[in-house]
Fold this sequence. Notes:
Number of domains: 1
Low-confidence stretches: 32-36
CATH class: Alpha Beta
Amino acid sequence: MSDQITDTDAIKEMVRARYGGIAAGAAASCCDSAPDGNLDGKARRMGYSAAELAAVPEGANLGLGCGNPQAIAAMRPGEVVVDLGSGAGFDCLLAARQVGPAGHVIGVDMTHEMLKAARENARKVGAANVEFRLGELEHLPIADSTADVILSNCVINLVPDKAQVFREAFRVLKANGRLAISDVVNIKPLSPDLTVDPALLCGCVSGAAPSTEIEGWLADAGFVDIRVSVKQESREMIQTWAPGRGIEDYVASAIIEARKPARDEIRACCA
Length: 271
């Protein structure tokens, strides 16, 4: 019988403790693909520009992502953006620059330590159009039809009930709002030793779901224009998360895109 970790509360507490420790500087990242400490170099490999990295204060980039959702979000001035699992505020602060003073960015994270770091980073750069809220992604502390765009960077794989996260994202998005997510997906069934390793659950490996399941969850939530694009070139980055264990054969980074139908589309389908 598999000893896979399935208890929802236990998973949440492990993730909360691990990432709270990272924010407080008491723990290293489980998915550290910058073992030399060059976090900016890692971010550049994920697609962030030098200008973007220069725009955020030191400490905002913790090297925890697996891609760049900013590159596909096409954010516009005046839009409202929600970042699921906002960490120390890296993507939120970059989004705030794109939506401008007339726009608004809401980061949601379940760790007090991350929220404290994010709020301090926003203060350092005077980002008045950003706020950070404590909450779990399965129960977002945000009203219906609030966001034009929802971002997330390598966080949803950590959540036990991913289908509920996508239902919440659908609820929070405005009609015609869009989802722009970078995350890891499962490309091959995990070996037993990887499945039961708590470090790999916190490290964005054993919680990854197959693309087909993600597409199904998004469709069930009501999304359209669903696309999961696996980035095979991410294997080099991922193998550094647990050197010698072959995890790059089981998971890969992917870009996940979807859209909430516009109101006229909803009326047409239900007429």
